[in-house]
Specification:
Blueprint lengths: L14 E3 L6 E3 L2 H10 L3 E8 L2 E8 L5 E10 L6 H13 L5 E3 L6 E4 L3 E7 L8 H4 L2 E7 L3 E8 L4 E9 L9 E6 L5 E6 L4 E10 L8 E11 L7 E5 L2 E5 L3 E6 L5 E5 L6 E4 L6 E4 L4 E7 L2 E6 L10 E5 L2 E5 L3 E6 L5 E6 L6 E4 L4 E5 L2 E6 L3 H7 L4 H11 L7 H19 L8 H9 L17 H18 L18 H5 L1 H20 L8 H12 L14 H4 L5 H9 L4 H12 L35 H12 L4 H11 L2 E4 L2 E4 L5 H8 L11 H13 L3 H10 L3 H10 L5 H14 L6 H9 L7 H14 L6 H13 L3
Antiparallel strand pairs: 1-30, 2-5, 3-4, 4-5, 5-7, 6-7, 8-9, 9-10, 10-11, 12-13, 13-14, 14-15, 16-17, 17-18, 18-19, 20-21, 21-22, 22-23, 24-25, 25-26, 26-27, 28-29, 29-30, 31-32
């Protein structure tokens, strides 16, 4: 069978393939299908999630047999295809049990009862434990009212069979079944047997036990939804349970036990669930509708296009509507209804499988994955016109925070076109404005949208509200919090430092508007009129009622060169005064000396590491200066200060994780700026402890212990030993043991005994005994056997 390709040159990125985007897989769908088809099995059900595809094969003869096979993405190939087929052959032979599963780390099971539904479940409750929230489970639902559960171990890349449970009390045949997220953080298992629609809550509790598997299945009471009409469609989504009759579309809410309903103007014939939003899409002969939940109600939206024929299968994936007819798959843009591309299918009667990350089609003897272009590439292909920018923005706005940068780009372009060309004054009421207001970090960027002489009043009011929310949050004035949607969105150090400039622009714009409104005819004002205008201006909504921020240290210290600032910082006479001033400007309301840091430092402390050439320009070493002054005047505050800056310093995110902007860590930069301990005048114990703490923040625990022991700070060194990583503890332990035994006058014998009891598990007791024998034999210690007797007895009692 040849792979079908796109029939449209514009859709060259669209195609169908038999391969999954996985490094390796446990089982291959491409080779599994023809092998099972040759044995009389047809593919009847497909369910997919990220990294897993569940397949149900059925052999219909005198005794119907259903085989469930789950293909998993794994880092390396573990089982080959012949091994998997041999297990399936053994499962077919044994027909004495109505359920038989292979005792391997993958899901291979045989059922003598028809399979109605297969689901992959994750914990829906935000209050669930971290272990439970990351656990994936597979539930196989049968028509006799029983369900079988497996649990996936992400560490072992293996499935573990948990148990089965019965959910239907009567023995009637189940016609429809599905799972859905229910209220209370539980999963719901719903079914319909031709009478009333029923469901039960299913929860998974983690109870550690050595005798049995820690995951327990908890099945709730039976809940019945009164419904007299036959159910045409039933499916679960992220919004809850959808079920459709001839007259009603209903949604069992996932956040409350209420049921939302909406009327059908015509009987729908085709249905699908949008895999990204969880909305319901229905198709009839006259209309194509999208049902979604909006502000606690079920909202019905007519899509701006209709299907020419109803004898099709539909699916909603990302921003596309997929329609599969007999020999063709057509893709539409779900917002505009425009034709995107067409794909030729080799045979008829295809159905869709889909999840949020991938989609495809399947039939009784075939399985394909649909290659879909990324959202960014598709938005770029829409064009550069104003109308195309709006389409691109509509295409990206539902993707969440992962594409917020691209959303801001298209919303920004759309607003510029709206202000420049159409002259629309109601920009604040547009959807692009609301999105841009939530995404951008600096309100000053909105000023670049203005190109005409008179900015829209709604625009100015929106900017003023943002400034008010920044100041209100900064000074803990919560009375204005109810007037803004996200008061914490723009409270950043850069915005606080540039607040005065944007505030002055708002004030000047208000004064300018007031003057222009009072001088429409008279070009020159008299003195009395000018005074009255000034009095009226003072009564305007002036932002000066809020206190201004003192983050203007760059202007006050601009006259000093970097070398002059460093000379002041190194001065023992004026250093303390300069440190107090820098704290006032750069660390206002930042309580970093306490156990938990409160407040955010100024962005001026987040500068990158300077080089020698930077001294020719006005670039002050604020971080290095303050670190040096803290070490000299307040050593106990040095380590909390560096930890505070490290915590709030901006980070760069990448696919490999995040990393700090500076090449060296802040603790390493502080060590380079500090005076070596050997050259410090009037060296105190606090100086030594502060130096050691900075070394520990740089992961130099061995160097920190060496310095502490050199200056006889044994207790501080023990503290470093307790907080050190496990791979460093053995080295620190031998250093402490050597110091304790060789210097018995400095370390009490009780402290030595406590140190010996803190021996890392990787060090054997015989090694410690041999070391003590070596010290006593060579005469390096003045300790006696009587003094060491409690330690020796404790070591002899240990097993290792």
């Amino acid at each position: 069978m040849t792979e079908p390709r796109s029939s449209d040159g514009k859709g060259a990125t669209w195609s169908l393939t038999k391969e999954m985007v996985w490094p390796c897989s446990r089982g291959c769908i491409t080779s599994l299908l023809p092998s099972l088809n040759a044995k009389g099995f047809d593919l009847v059900l497909v369910t997919a999630t990220s990294g897993h595809v569940a397949l149900c094969f059925r052999q219909e003869n005198e005794n119907t047999i259903d085989l469930v096979v789950v293909v998993d993405a794994v880092p390396e190939q573990k089982f080959d295809q012949p091994f998997q087929l041999d297990i399936i052959g053994e499962l077919r032979k044994d027909t004495t049990e109505n359920f038989l599963a292979a005792n391997v780390d993958m899901i291979l099971c045989r059922h003598s009862v028809e399979i109605k539904h297969i689901a992959f479940l994750k914990e829906a409750s935000v209050k669930a434990s971290k272990q439970s929230a990351q656990t994936l489970r597979c539930v196989v639902v049968r028509s006799d009212g029983s369900a079988y559960v497996w649990e996936w171990s992400a560490e072992k890349f293996a499935w573990t069979y948990l148990n089965f449970f019965s959910f239907a009390e009567n023995s009637s045949r189940i016609l429809l079944s599905t799972t859905f997220p229910s209220f209370g953080g539980h999963h719901g298992l719903a079914w319909w047997s031709g009478n009333a629609l029923s469901y039960r809550h299913v929860a998974f509790e983690i109870a550690p036990s050595l005798a049995k598997h820690p995951t327990h299945i908890v099945v709730g009471n039976l809940v019945t939804i009164s419904n007299s009409d036959p159910i045409l469609f039933m499916c679960g989504s992220k919004l809850g349970l959808w079920f459709v009759t001839e007259k009603l579309v209903s949604l069992q809410n996932e956040k409350s036990p209420s049921t939302l309903t909406a009327l059908n103007s015509s009987t729908p014939q085709k249905f699908c669930i949008h895999d990204l939003t969880g909305a319901l899409i229905t198709a009839s002969s006259t209309e194509l509708c999208l049902f979604s939940k909006h502000q606690g109600h079920l909202h019905k939206k007519l899509l701006p296009y209709n299907l020419r024929q109803i004898d099709v299968e539909i699916a909603g994936h990302r921003q596309f509507l997929l329609v599969a007819s007999k020999h063709e798959c057509t893709i539409f843009d779900i917002h505009s209804g425009g034709l995107v591309t067409k794909l030729t299918l080799p045979i008829a009667s295809y159905r869709f499988w889909s999840n949020s990350s991938a989609t495809g089609i399947w039939a009784n003897q075939s399985f394909y994955r649909l290659k879909v272009p990324s959202a960014v590439h598709y938005a770029e292909d829409l064009g550069n016109t104003s109308l195309s920018q709006k389409k691109a923005y509509q295409h990206l706005k539902n993707y969440g925070s992962s594409l917020k940068f691209q959303q801001a780009v298209y919303a920004y372009s759309r607003l510029r076109a709206l202000v420049e060309t159409s002259g629309d004054r109601n920009v604040q009421s547009s959807d692009e404005w609301r999105s841009l207001e939530q995404i951008i970090e600096n309100p000053g960027l909105l000023l670049s949208l203005l190109t005409d002489d008179k900015p829209p009043q709604t625009f100015v009011q929106g900017l003023e509200n943002q400034l008010a929310s920044i100041q209100a949050r900064y000074h803990a004035i919560l009375s204005i919090q109810n007037e803004v949607s996200q008061p914490l969105c723009h409270t950043t150090p850069l915005n606080l430092d540039t607040f005065d400039y944007i505030h002055r622009w708002v004030q000047l714009n208000e004064k300018r508007s007031k003057v222009l409104s009072c001088t429409k005819i008279t070009p020159r004002l008299s003195k009395n009129v000018s005074c009255s205008i000034e009095g009226n201006l003072s009564n305007l909504n002036d932002m000066s009622q809020y206190l201004s921020t003192p983050l203007a240290v760059s202007r006050k210290l601009h006259s000093l060169s970097p070398l002059q600032l460093m000379s002041w910082a190194c001065s023992s006479q004026f250093g303390q005064s300069l440190l107090s001033q820098l704290e006032l400007y750069l660390l206002e309301n930042v309580k970093f000396r306490e156990s938990s840091t409160l407040g955010v430092p100024s962005h001026l402390l987040f500068h990158e590491e300077r080089s020698l050439s930077d001294f020719r320009m006005q670039k002050h070493l604020y971080f290095e200066c303050m670190a040096r002054m803290y070490c000299q005047h307040e050593p106990k505050a040095l380590a909390p200060f560096i930890a505070c800056i490290t915590q709030h310093c901006p980070r760069l995110f990448s696919l490999q994780g995040y990393h700090h902007i500076p090449k060296r860590t802040h603790s390493e930069r502080a060590l380079l700026a500090l005076t070596p301990l050997a050259l410090v005048d009037n060296l105190s114990a606090d100086n030594v402890d502060a130096y050691a703490k900075i070394l520990c923040q740089s992961d130099a625990h061995i160097e920190a212990a060496t310095i502490l022991l050199r200056y006889n700070h044994f207790e501080s060194c023990v503290t470093v030993f307790k907080a050190a990583p496990n791979d460093v503890k053995p080295i620190l332990y031998w250093k402490l043991l050597d110091y304790s035994v060789v210097n018995p006058d400095t370390v009490p014998i009780g402290s030595l005994f406590e140190l010996i009891k803190q021996k890392p598990s990787i060090i054997a007791s015989t090694q410690v005994l041999q070391a003590l024998k070596h010290y006593l034999k060579e005469g390096r210690s003045s300790l006696t056997m009587g003094q060491l007797r409690p330690s020796l007895v404790w070591l002899l009692k240990q097993k290792n």
